[in-house]
Design a protein that fits this description.
46% of the residues lie in helices and 4% in strands. The protein is mainly alpha-helical and 111 residues long. It has a domain at 28-103. It has a two-stranded antiparallel ribbon with strand order 1-2. The radius of gyration is 15 Å and the shape is globular.
Length: 111
């Protein structure tokens, strides 16, 4: 779906690639830095991100080590939490946003 998103105009775009470039353009820090900013522990190895060996291999082929993984890629590669469609980083980020809307304030996340 993300790779072949069809807009109402009929145009097809690769939303995953567009989002990946947006992360770079906006200067979002790397995966481990974002995890730390949200109070999550740093990962030390690819298997800390995903238990899927295919995902681990692909991450290893793309990145020299876990500290060079981009935030969006790492977040999407994470094993999903029980009963969720998301891993810890996206789940925590979404929880922060919901709390912000609900409480009209949000803790400042310094990255």
């Amino acid at each position: 779906m993300m790779r072949n998103y069809r807009f109402p105009t009929g145009d097809i775009n690769d939303i995953a690639s567009i989002d990946h470039l947006r992360v770079r353009d906006r200067g979002i820090p790397l995966y481990n830095k974002v995890r730390e900013a949200y109070g999550l522990s740093r990962v030390e190895k690819f298997s800390d991100i995903s238990s899927n060996t295919i995902v681990q291999t692909r991450l290893n082929e793309l990145y020299s080590n876990v500290d060079s993984i981009e935030a969006l890629v790492g977040a999407l590669a994470e094993d999903h939490l029980a009963g969720s469609n998301f891993g810890p980083l996206i789940h925590t980020s979404m929880r922060e946003q919901v709390n912000f809307k609900k409480n009209k304030h949000m803790r400042t996340v310094y990255i």
